[in-house]
C-alpha cells in the first residue's frame, strides 16, 4: 500500500484519436461524451489565443497528478484537431462518478451566494458556513468554494491576463478615473486610480490632502501611495491610490501629475498637503503643486523624536518630559523670531547633557521648520492635518481589506474598491444624520441659522468657542484658529455678542468645507439632463417622495412648509452676496472665488430660503420687528 502511494500506478486509456472538427461545440460534445464513456470527468483547462482568435483549448481529467500530466490539447488549424498529449492516469477510472469534484457542483443560488460573498471580501470558511445554514444537506468543502471562486475569476478574465483585465475594468467603466505608465518592456510601472465616489468627495473636500506610501500590499512589491482627505464631518475619505515602481521624485511627480489632471481639473489645487519627511514626495509636490503648502505632520516628527532621543535620557522621565515640553513650546511659537529664540534656548539647555538628542533634531527637523512650525503653518487652512495620524489609520483600514501581501494588483484594486464603497456609505450616513438630527446642545439662538446646514462636527467645535468666549481670561486673538480650521473663533463670537442678544452665526462664517452640500445626498440626480432648455426636476421630485416617507412627522411638516413656499410663494429672487466684515473671514475664501465656475447651482431649498424675509410681527417685507411701523 505504502509503495503504491509513493509510485502511483498509471492507468492507460484509449486515446480519443486524432480527429478533426469544424465546430467548437461538436468538439466539446465529443470530448465530454468520450470522458463519460471512459469514466473520467473532463474539464476545460487553459485556452490560448493568437491575435484575439482562439487557437487551442486544453482538456484535462479532474483527478490525479499535476496539471501537465493529464491534459489533452486541441488545436485550431483548419477546423479543430484533437490531439492527446498524455493518456496515462494516476488513478483508476471510475464507474461511479459522484466522487469527482465537478460532480459536487453548486446550484445556481449557491453560486450566486459565493459570487456575492466573494465580492464582499468573505473568507471561504464563512461562505461554507452560510451555505450550510441555508441548505444543511449541501455537499461541499472549502475546496468547492475555492474552485467556484477560481471559476468566477477565470470567467471574469475571459482569456485575458489579470493585468489587462484590470486595465479594461478601470478604463471601460465610469466607476473610475485612471492613468498608467508602462516601462521599456511594456510592463506596467505606474497605475493611478480613483473611485467615482472619491472624485465627488474631492470636489467638496479637496482643500486638504494627506499622502503616504504603504508597503506589502501586492506580490510585485510595488509601494502603494495612499491619498486621503477630510470630510466636513471630520471623517477620513480615500481620495486616490497610486501603485509606483519606486519612490524617487520622478515617480512621485508622475503621481502628482495624475492627481492634478485627473482629480483637480477645473478645481483650485489643494491648499495643504500633509506628508512625511520624504524628499522625493516633497520635491514632486513642490513642482506640480507650487502654490500648495506642503506640511510635514508633527505626529511623524514626534514619533521619530521619541524613537531617536528617548534612550539618551536613560529612563529619567522627568528630564525627558522637560525636553519634550520645550520642543513643543518651540514648535508652537507664534512668530518666526520667537521660534528661533526658543530653539536657541532649547539647544543651549540640552547641548551639554544630551548632545546627540539635540543634534538629531537640529540635523533632521530644524531644516524643515517652515513645514511644521506654527509660525509658518498658522497662515493657511490645514484642518489639523499637522497633528493627526489619519493616513496611518487609512493604511490600517486598507490592509484589513487586502489581508494578504501576495495578491495581484487586480485583487488589491478590487479590495480597495470595496473599502472605498463601504467608507462612502459611512460618510453618507454621517452627513445625513448631521442634516436631520440636531443635538439638543446645538439648539441655541446663536446657531439658529446654521443648524442642519453645517456639519455636527463644526457645530460642536463652534460651541467650544462659544464657551471659550465667555471665559474671563480669554487670550488675545491670533486668528490662528479661524485661519487653520475655517471656523469662527471665540473672539469673533465675543465681538458679535457685545451689545446685542440677537447675534447669530451665518453660513459664511464657516469655510465651505463645513457646509452640508446637497449633492452628497443626491447621487443619481446629477445626471439629470436639461430637457427643452429647462432643468428636469422630475427625478428630484421622485427622489424626494421616496425619502419623504422615511421622515418623522415633524420633518414631513417642515418639508411641506418649504414646498408650499416654493409652489405658492413669490418667485425666487437671487441677491448679491452679503459683504462681510473683514474679521473672521474663513481662509480659502479667495480660493473659493476661483472655483466659482465649477460650483453647483443653488438647490431648490436654498433658493426658497433666499425669498425676502418677512417681519416677525406683521408678516410684511422690507423691514423687521425692530423697526416695524405697524
Ligand atoms: Zn502622518
Ligand atoms: Zn480669535
Ligand atoms: Zn412688521
Automatic annotation (TrEMBL):
Keywords of the record: Metal-binding, Zinc, Zinc-finger
Residue ranges of the region described as Disordered: 577-603
Cross-referenced InterPro entries: MULE_transposase_dom, Zinc_finger_SWIM, Znf_CCHC
Coiled coil region boundaries: none
Entry's transmembrane regions: none
Bias type Polar residues, positions: 591-601
Molecular function per GO: nucleic acid binding; zinc ion binding
Boundaries of every CCHC-type domain copy: 615-630
One Pfam match: MULE
Protein name: CCHC-type domain-containing protein
Annotated organism of origin: Absidia glauca
Amino acid at each position: 500500500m505504502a509503495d503504491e502511494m509513493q509510485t502511483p500506478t498509471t492507468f492507460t486509456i484509449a486515446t480519443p484519436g486524432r480527429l478533426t472538427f469544424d465546430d467548437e461545440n461538436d468538439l466539446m460534445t465529443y470530448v465530454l461524451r468520450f470522458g463519460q464513456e471512459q469514466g473520467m470527468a473532463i474539464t476545460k483547462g487553459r485556452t490560448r489565443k493568437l491575435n484575439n482568435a482562439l487557437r487551442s483549448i486544453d482538456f484535462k481529467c479532474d483527478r490525479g497528478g499535476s496539471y501537465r500530466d493529464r491534459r489533452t490539447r486541441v488545436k485550431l488549424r483548419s477546423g479543430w484537431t484533437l490531439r492527446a498529449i498524455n493518456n496515462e492516469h494516476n488513478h483508476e477510472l471510475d464507474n461511479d462518478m459522484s466522487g469527482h469534484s465537478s460532480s459536487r457542483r453548486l446550484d445556481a443560488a449557491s453560486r450566486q451566494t459565493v459570487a456575492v460573498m466573494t465580492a464582499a471580501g468573505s473568507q471561504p470558511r464563512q461562505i461554507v458556513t452560510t451555505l450550510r445554514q441555508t441548505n444543511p444537506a449541501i455537499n461541499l468543502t472549502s475546496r468547492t468554494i475555492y474552485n467556484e471562486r477560481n471559476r468566477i475569476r477565470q470567467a471574469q478574465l475571459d482569456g485575458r491576463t489579470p493585468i489587462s483585465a484590470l486595465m479594461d475594468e478601470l478604463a471601460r467603466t465610469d466607476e473610475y478615473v485612471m492613468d498608467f505608465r508602462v516601462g521599456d518592456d511594456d510592463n506596467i510601472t505606474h497605475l493611478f486610480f480613483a473611485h467615482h465616489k472619491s472624485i465627488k468627495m474631492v470636489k467638496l473636500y479637496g482643500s486638504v490632502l494627506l499622502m503616504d506610501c504603504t508597503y506589502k500590499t501586492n506580490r510585485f512589491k510595488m509601494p502603494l501611495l495612499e491619498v486621503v482627505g477630510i470630510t466636513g464631518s471630520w471623517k477620513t475619505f480615500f481620495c486616490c491610490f497610486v501603485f509606483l515602481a519606486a519612490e524617487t521624485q520622478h515617480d512621485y511627480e508622475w503621481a502628482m501629475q495624475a492627481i492634478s489632471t485627473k482629480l483637480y481639473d477645473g478645481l483650485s489645487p489643494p491648499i495643504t498637503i500633509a506628508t512625511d519627511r520624504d524628499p522625493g514626495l516633497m520635491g514632486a509636490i513642490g513642482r506640480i503643486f507650487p502654490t500648495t503648502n506642503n506640511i510635514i505632520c508633527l505626529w511623524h516628527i514626534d514619533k521619530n523624536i521619541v524613537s531617536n532621543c528617548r534612550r539618551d535620557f536613560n529612563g529619567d522621565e522627568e528630564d525627558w518630559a522637560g525636553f519634550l515640553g520645550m520642543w513643543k513650546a518651540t514648535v508652537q511659537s507664534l512668530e518666526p523670531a520667537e521660534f528661533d529664540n526658543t530653539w536657541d534656548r532649547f539647544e543651549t539647555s540640552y547641548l551639554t547633557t544630551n548632545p546627540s538628542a539635540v543634534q538629531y533634531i537640529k540635523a533632521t527637523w530644524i531644516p524643515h521648520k517652515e513645514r511644521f512650525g506654527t509660525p509658518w503653518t498658522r497662515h493657511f487652512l490645514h484642518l489639523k492635518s499637522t497633528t493627526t495620524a489619519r493616513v496611518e489609520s487609512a493604511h490600517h483600514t486598507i490592509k484589513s481589506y487586502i489581508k494578504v501581501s501576495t495578491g495581484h494588483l487586480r485583487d488589491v484594486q478590487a479590495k480597495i474598491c470595496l473599502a472605498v464603497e463601504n467608507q462612502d456609505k459611512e460618510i453618507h450616513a454621517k452627513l445625513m444624520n448631521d442634516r436631520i438630527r440636531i443635538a439638543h446642545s446645538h439648539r441655541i439662538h446663536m446657531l439658529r441659522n446654521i443648524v442642519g446646514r453645517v456639519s455636527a462636527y463644526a457645530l460642536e467645535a463652534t460651541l467650544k468657542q462659544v464657551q471659550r468666549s465667555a471665559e474671563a481670561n480669554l487670550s488675545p486673538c491670533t486668528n490662528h484658529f479661524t485661519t487653520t480650521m475655517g471656523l469662527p473663533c471665540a473672539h469673533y463670537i465675543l465681538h458679535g455678542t457685545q451689545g446685542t442678544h440677537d447675534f447669530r452665526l451665518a453660513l459664511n462664517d464657516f469655510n465651505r468645507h463645513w457646509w452640508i452640500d446637497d449633492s452628497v445626498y443626491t447621487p443619481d440626480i446629477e445626471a439629470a439632463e436639461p430637457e427643452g432648455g429647462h432643468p428636469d426636476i422630475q427625478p428630484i421630485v421622485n427622489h424626494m417622495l421616496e425619502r419623504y416617507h422615511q421622515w418623522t412627522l415633524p420633518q414631513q411638516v417642515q418639508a411641506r412648509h418649504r414646498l408650499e413656499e416654493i409652489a405658492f410663494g413669490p418667485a425666487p429672487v437671487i441677491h448679491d452676496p452679503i459683504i462681510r466684515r473683514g474679521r473672521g473671514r474663513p481662509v480659502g475664501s479667495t480660493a473659493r472665488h476661483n472655483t466659482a465656475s465649477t460650483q453647483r447651482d443653488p438647490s431648490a431649498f436654498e433658493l426658497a430660503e433666499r425669498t425676502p424675509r418677512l417681519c416677525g410681527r406683521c408678516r410684511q417685507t422690507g423691514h423687521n420687528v425692530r423697526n416695524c411701523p405697524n
